[in-house]
Amino acid sequence: MKKGPIILIGFLIITLIFILGVQYGKQVNTTEEALKLVMSLAPTPTVSVEPTPKTQSFTPFESTACGVSFIYPSELQPVKESSQAASFQNEKKEKQIQVTCAGDILPIPDELKSATTSVTIDEKYQTGYFIDNDEYILFTMRHPTKKFDVVITVFHDLLPLVEKTLEFTN
Questions:
Q1: What is the pLDDT of residues 50-95, one digit of tens each?
Q2: Which CATH number among 3.40.50.300, 3.40.1000.10, 3.90.1150.10, 3.40.220.10 corresponds to the domain 58-168?
Q3: Rounded distance, CA 164 to CA 119, Å?
Q4: What is the pLDDT of residue 142?
Q5: Pairing of strands 85-89, 77-81
Q6: Is the separation of the CB atoms in 72 and 84 below 8 Å?
Q7: DSSP-assigned letters across all residues of 10-31
Q8: Domain boundaries, the chain
Q9: Which residues pair with 51 in a beta bridge?
Q10: 126-166, pLDDT tens digit by residue?
């Protein structure tokens, strides 16, 4: 056999391998460039500062005339206090607590009796009535030792606090 065709075929195979190698190199280079681009677009780590939680402070209230005590948020300020009534509200006048005590309290009007909730004071269930577009809950309790009624009107978000902290005093 002649050496000419074998050398030609060998040369063509080497050329083919060279071309395939160059193409493979281009593909690797493109992949590396894409990785560099992606890495440069990655977000830099930022320091996140968590907001400090707003601490809620509370103020005790005690009425010796009414014989009740409870804790209310310090954002509420006393509006009026007398021997038989006390009222607290915040600056925007959107949250309030009112306490009234007297010998006999007028009965709850029938239109209020349609929307009720359960209020638990000293492990005893009381009926609470929604008033002012369901923003406030009004409930009446008989003082266990002084034998008069205590009426409390409380903003619905503050009801759990009043339920847990309301106590009758002598």
A1: 777 777 899 998 988 888 899 999 989 888 888 788 999 988 887 7
A2: 3.40.1000.10
A3: 10
A4: 84
A5: antiparallel
A6: no
A7: HHHHHHHHHHHHHHHHHHHHHH
A8: 1-48, 58-168
A9: none
A10: 888 888 777 888 888 888 888 888 888 899 888 889 889 98
What are residue 19's phi and psi, to 5 degrees? -65, -45
Distance of CA 14 to the CA centre of its chain: 73
Helix (H, G, I), strand (E, B) or coil at 104: coil
Q: How many CB atoms lie within 10 A of CB 162?
A: 21
Residue 39 pLDDT exceeds 90: no
Dihedral angle over CA of 116, 117, 121, 124, nearest 10:
80
Tokens 């406030």 sit on residue:
136
β-partners of residue 128 are 117, 139
Lookup: tokens for 162? 């009043």
Distances from the Cα of 78 to the Cα of 25, 49, 93, 128, angstroms:
81, 36, 12, 23
Q: Environment class of residue 130 by beta-carbon count within 10 Å: exposed (0-12), middle (13-18) or buried (19+)?
A: middle
Between the alpha carbon of residue 44 and those of residues 40, 47, 55, the distances in Å are 9, 10, 33
Question: In Å, what is the CA distance from 166 to each residue of 86, 90, 123, 134?
Answer: 14, 20, 11, 22
If you count them, how many residues does the chain have?
A: 170
